[in-house]
Amino acid sequence: MAAFNESGREENNLVLSVPNKYGQQIKKCLQRSCLYDPDRRSKSSENGRVLLPILDTVQDLEQRISEAISLENKVDWNIVRQVLPSSKKKQVVSQYQQMVSVLEEFLRRYDVVLTDNLKSCIPKHWERHGDLVMFDASLQDPVWKQHGEEIWPLIAKVLSCKRIAQKGSIASNGYRTPQVCMLLGQDSWVEHVDNGIRYTYDVTKCMFSSGNVTEKLRVSRFHCESETVVDLYAGIGYFTLPYLVHAKAHLVHACEWNPDAAEALKRNLRLNGVEDRCVVHHGDNRELCPKDIADRVNLGLIPSSEPGWETACRALKKCSGGVLHIHGNVETKKSTTKPNENSHSAQCIECSDGKPENNDRDSPKKVNDKNLVRNMCSNNEATALNCSTEKNNATCLNCTTKRTLNKNSGRESWKDWSGEVSTKIRGILDRIHAPRQWRVNVLHVEHVKSYAPHVDHVVVDLDCRPIL
Ligand SMILES: C[S@@+](CC[C@H](N)C(=O)[O-])C[C@H]1O[C@@H](n2cnc3c(N)ncnc32)[C@H](O)[C@@H]1O
Hints:
CATH topology of the largest domain: Rossmann fold
Shape: globular
Number of helices: 15
Bound molecules: S-adenosylmethionine
């Protein structure tokens, strides 16, 4: 039986069946030629083929497809009819429309008309955490608030969820607690799977930093088998867990002063079976972080982790030093650098032939810690992430291409910032370990994300070694 969409038109069920191995390539060809139907999702079929949704409103479809697929001679393709699931975007749009209808109907019972103003409060976006849906501040009008108790179950039915929560702003109380309240349901713990790691936390008390994804992936590619790592701002374990689960750190000391985050962190360690390799220090890291034990220290706090720099320096092994990963928000200025100008001093070891920026007082020295070099850049995937993929928006300062350069006009600012951080860290190390002096090199600068207009979240990797 034919299905019909909201405008009474028969639902499009035209699909292109192609061999699995060409699926992605042909999908791109179809998208480029405006033949791909974005409202439906592609699907693998049993016989080693994939079904790609195509538009049914195109004239001379077969001809257009064979023009679009440049592999036409090699690929055996055919057009068939098959119902495919709706794309996520389409589902959200249609759920929003259903919410509007349900709420309009509800208000009618109270002789209230759904005005444009009331409609504008109905959320168009939401996050899903299992059976919990989280809205940004929405349905704020008193009319909605008055009927909340009756409305939330209706909305839950439309969105096929059991619990609803609403976000407010992030509290500036040092814990960065989200101001979330539960609108439907009591239990506010959720579970989130990210890069194969399970995280659980209370949405009313902690937040999940999904914006750090490129950095979490980079950390996951480190090789820390023989290392002791300190995570100074562990939160619920966004970096602690990748260090343990993927980078296989020998031991992680995780510091966290928010009791709710520390509780979630402990649960997450157990959930992922790595609790025996992690010591949680609950309290202010400046007071309880262990000293002289670390090969690597993570300082994941923005806008600035400077209050923890001395603690991090004291945590590094006195005799051999280690690496600091320092996060910060950097204000960017307009770039004056031309595309081919090669004046960067903060570099990725891989692409600079082992010549990292050296701000020490001796002659330039190659970093000779092989393991460190591998950790930073030489693993193939890590290199792709660090050195040029525009897709990941993670750009090594030295090997930016013209394409990424335009996107990252802030790199001069990152370079200045990383130089300043490096100088300050060397000053701290020299002071706390006087009379021994230290050498500090910028190994790499990672752009994590654009935090706000003209503000970038950046991580600088500093190699800190005592001069023997
Ligand atoms: C925004 S979270 C960052 C978590 C994670 N590193 C990330 O980047 O996604 C910062 C965490 O550091 C904790 N924190 C801030 N200052 C601290 C301190 N002096 N000692 C221990 N924890 C601290 C906060 O409670 C919070 O959970």
